[in-house]
Amino acid sequence: MKFKLHSLEKKWILYDVGNSAFTLLVSTIIPIYFNNLADNAGISSINYLAYWGYATSAATIIVAILGPTLGTIADLKGFKKKIFFISLLFGAISCVILGFLSSWIWFLLLFVLAKAAYSLSLVIYDSMLTDVSSAERMDEVSAHGYAWGYIGSCIPFVLSLVLILFYETLGISMQTAMSGAFVLIAVWWLILSLPLLTSYQQIYYIEKKDHPILSSFHRLGKIFPELAANKKILFFLIAFFFYIDGVYTIIDMATAYGTALGLDTTGLLLALLLTQIVAFPAALFFGKLSRKVPAARIILICIVAYFCIALYGVILTSQYQFWILAVCVGLFQGAIQSMSRSYFAKIIPANKSGEYFGIYDICGKGASFMGTMLVSIISQISGSVNYGVGALSLMFLAGFAFFLITDHKS
Question: Which residue, of 53, 64, 76, 339, is most buried by count of CB atoms within 10 Å of its CB?
């Protein structure tokens, strides 16, 4: 039977299309722009990669602190849409300002804030899945979100590339081209969020009390005893912490990694564009496969694939090898993200989705400081970015072991 998306599910998916443009910007153009600023300031390639890793870690630590707090408050009736809007608006405005900065340190500081705001909007967005879809449809709806996000984000990205690669032909400066690219991404992000903002209704919620903020902190304090009592959720979060940390580190640092290896900038951007294109049909395929194969099995397959990808990074030295890496990442990126999101949404209390997805984000984007720090530290100690990326294989190994335990919990 053909799977057909409902109207609200489509509008929810559109936000994936909008925010994915910022994700692609962070993993491609922003690191290259920062590399240019850092190079002008006399910073070495090894330190450039390290500083980029430290900045990414700082952003995720902020999310680790604010994510559960805002997520818990968002569970109150009428709060979820408001917090979602404030987060995405702050992220989009910060994105615009980034394009007009010339100081590497100020650029890095604002990037931390922009990425944190973006990640906080995703905490709320992911928690909306319980309101916009049903348990039996979540796997495929989540997969469609990532799939259309990958292919849709290519539109503003290609337009940005045209500005950046052909700025002389267009009769503008490189700085103007960069500024235009950042503005374009921010506008795309905002416009595609409007359908969800105008149609979303919070179905599952907790009634507001006399002191809603204080009561939210009180509820947040109870989540850890709840996790200790529910071993399936607890072990999933531990497993997710490790394997998705490695996934997001590869996404966040792919361009910085290739640049530090001295690979051609244009080739890197095109390779990462290929990742998005490959990820589109791959995510849809795994979404359809979830009708016959449990999401847990698909997640395990993806963890093994990423383990191999991390090991491949140890021997990567040339452009064509980076292209192979880009294709392999594209094949499994959407599946591991979408199946993890829907798997978690189905095992948590629906009326506490914001609270639980706040913890979920700590273990994902909010906790990816471990992966980026690991790459940065190992790269500096060994003097090789290859060994830094290869060290991520340990993250996937740990994630696989803990997910096996999760799958056997009732």
Answer: 339
Name 159's Cβ contacts closer than 8 Å, sequence gap at least 6: 181, 184
Q: What is the pLDDT of residue 275?
A: 84
What pLDDT shows up at residue 141? 96
Q: What is the pLDDT of residues 278-334, one digit of tens each?
A: 989 999 999 999 999 999 999 999 999 999 998 988 887 777 788 888 889 889 998
Which residues, 6+ apart, have CB-to-CB distance to 67 below 8 Å? 119, 120, 123, 358, 359, 361, 362, 366
Q: How far apart are CA 297 and CA 41, in angstroms?
A: 48
pTM for the whole structure: 0.85
User: Mean of the pLDDT values across residues 347-359?
Assistant: 91
Per-residue burial over 132-152, b = 16 or more CB atoms within 10 Å of its CB, e = otherwise: bbeeebbbbbbbbbbbbbbbb
Could you tell me which of 69, 141, 13, 44 has the C-alpha nearest to residue 366?
Answer: 69
Note the pLDDT tens digit of each residue in 230-253.
Answer: 999 999 999 999 999 888 787 766
Q: With contact defined as beta carbons under 8 Å apart, do 200 and 133 qualify?
A: no
Number of C-beta neighbours around residue 385 at 10 A = 26
Residue 174's pLDDT is what? 83
Which position has the token pair 């993890």?
340
CA gap 341, 143 in Å, rounded: 9
Residue that is written with structure tokens 């300031």 in the block: 41
CA atoms within 13 A of residue 142's CA, in its CB half-sphere: 32
> Six-digit token pair at 265?
């900038």
What is the CA 345 to chain-centroid distance, rounded? 17
338, 149 contact by CB (below 8 A): no
- Report the C-alpha gap between 319 and 84 in whole angstroms: 40
- DSSP H or E stretch at residue 51: helix 45-74
Helix, strand and coil percent figures for the chain, each rounded to 5: 80, 0, 20
pLDDT-derived band of residue 365, with 50, 70 and 90 as boundaries? low
Q: Which amino acid is at 178?
A: M
Cβ-proximal residues to 344 (8 Å cutoff; 6+ apart), any chain: 233, 236, 240, 356, 357, 360
3 state DSSP class of 192: coil
